[in-house]
Amino acid sequence: MHNALRRSVGIFLGALLLAFAATSASGQAQEDAPVEPGQTFTGRVVEVTDGDTFGVRRSLGGEVTIRLHGIDAPESAQPYGTAATRAARRYVGGKDVRVTVEEIGRYGRAVARIEAEGGDLGAMLIGDGLAWHYREYAPNETEYRRLQRQARNARRGLWSQSNPVPPWAWRDRTSGPGETSVEDRDCSDFDTQPEAQRFFERHRSDSSGGDPHNLDGDGDGEACESLSGG
Fold first, then answer.
1. Which member of 14, 96, 205, 227 has the greatest number of CB atoms within 10 A?
2. pLDDT tens across 84-127, in order?
């Protein structure tokens, strides 16, 4: 009787282990699922880096860094940069969204549209006067162009300034040696690779490229790979 019971318990535990292994393998496959142009998926916004960069946890598993298509929000150190981040966090932070991938940027980030309950996030930020229509990379977004004209005429947000500087022009001015927008950093200033990566993401652009703090020595888009957690 005892032997039969032990065998039954052993079989049961073995089945549990096999099920766990299968679930883990499936989860890993989902984590590794690639993001491609034309792909649409749902997920939850788990990080708002700034007004146009987000971390989205996909419903099927895996976290994706999203660079918002068709807009360029003020950088954090620019006027209205903080306001753009706060507005984006209010619209989508912690919320379920629909993501449509337009292309993969030069650093491997998905350039995509984000739709929440309120509508198209890019359109909302432009309409609030908290982002520019990025005409160089989205010349056919006529609705964005119309919304920007309305915001400018109404002097909403950043358009209340007498001479607002587009983020791409600001980055060009501040990315040279000795002209960085924040104190110069190196990898020793960070405790973990993810921390360095977040800083790296905030201070680069798919449009202008560049690595003003020289955190990505081999140019593969991964900052400070020698740090823990990478």
1. 205
2. 999 999 999 999 999 999 999 877 789 999 999 879 999 999 99
pTM tops 0.90: no
Residue 152 is given by DSSP the state H
Q: How far apart are CA 131 and CA 28, in angstroms?
A: 36
Q: DSSP for 105-167?
A: -TTS-EEEEEEETTEEHHHHHHHTTSSEE-TTT-TT-HHHHHHHHHHHHHT-GGGGSSSPPPH
For residue 78, the one-letter residue type is Q
Instruction: Report the alpha-carbon distance of residue 122 to residue 19 in Å, rounded.
Output: 43
Q: What is the DSSP letter of 186?
A: -
Instruction: Give residues with Cβ within 8 angstroms of 167, minimum separation 6.
Output: 72, 73, 74, 75, 78, 132, 205
Q: What's the gap between Cα 75 and its chain centre?
A: 14
Q: Which residues are catalytic?
A: 67, 75, 109
